[in-house]
Amino acid sequence: MKKNIIIASSALLLSSIFFVINDAIINYLSAQKIQFYHFVFYGAPAYIAVPIFLFTRGNLKKNLICNNYWIPLIRGLIFAPMPFITFISLKNITLPEFTTLNMSSPLIGAIYAFIFLKEKLNLFVYISLAIGFLGVIFVIQPGFDNFNIYFLVTLFGVLLITTTTTIVNKFNTVTTTLGYFLYGGSIIHVISFLLFIYDPIKVSFYVFVLITIASIFINMALLLVTFAFKKAQKHYSAIFCLVYLQIVWSSLIGFYFFNEYLNNYALIGAILIVLSGIISVPGQIKQIYDK
């Protein structure tokens, strides 16, 4: 089990970098009148390449077989609004704000782990939850002049994506990692193709390259996250703290490429959220050795 935690943590660490690169490109594209379905349509080859590769290797059928087909399909439906939420949020809030709010996912993950996965939370996790929640309050600043309704839209997206990872962890034997990946992306690709037919757009070669790069990174990130939470099994909440590293990557990219930064209150919130992740590390270690 210790080996599984190390592998899952490494996958989650790498995915955090991929997610931020994808979000940074979307942050740029959202200002170029590119809609989420244009992005998904032009980025589809990165997704389609996976089943094609599996077909050539003779492994496609193996990865499409499920013990219960409703589980990956429901997960795909829950994930479907995510590209729309990402695009509309990054049009209205900064990249560092978007990423910082996404770091509330470990808080929701810990609650899900306690309710649905029957994980035993220890004192470190409870303290981490309290500090993390306070950090989120500082970022969204309810009642302050800087409050933006799209902060809540982003948090709704966090709720959806955390639900999908919880499903993968709880039903880790239903299908393979690639099976979850294929079913999870199929619904949003079908929706995007239909919307693209209704509202087609021709993009420049430069934009096409950016979309392709972002699509490769987001698909790799989703695949790594699915693998990580499937591998983590009974340590779902413990490894979640590693996603806090996205704040670091996002703040650097936001500052150097978009001249975006967190205000003083949001910066305090980000520090609290990172501190929450650091405090949860002993909780992760305790979970491992309590088994």
SS content category: mainly alpha
Q: Which percent band covers the strand fraction?
A: under 5%
Please work out how many helical segments DSSP would assign.
15
Could you tell me the number of beta strands? 0
Q: Please give the alpha-carbon distance between the first and last residues.
A: 9 Å
State the domain count. 1
Helix content: over 70%
Radius of gyration: 19 Å
Major β-sheet profile:
none
Low-confidence stretches: none
The SSE order reads HHHHHHHHHHHHHHH
The average pLDDT is: 80
Shape: globular
What report would you give on this structure?
The protein is an all-alpha fold. The protein has one domain (2-290). The protein has 15 helices and no strands. The protein is globular and about 50 Å long.
Question: Would you kindly provide a brief summary of this structure?
Answer:
This protein is mainly alpha-helical and 291 residues long. The protein has one domain. It has helices spanning 2-29, 36-42, 44-57, 60-64, 70-79, 82-92, 95-102, 105-115, 123-140, 149-170, 177-198, 205-232, 236-239, 245-258, 264-290.
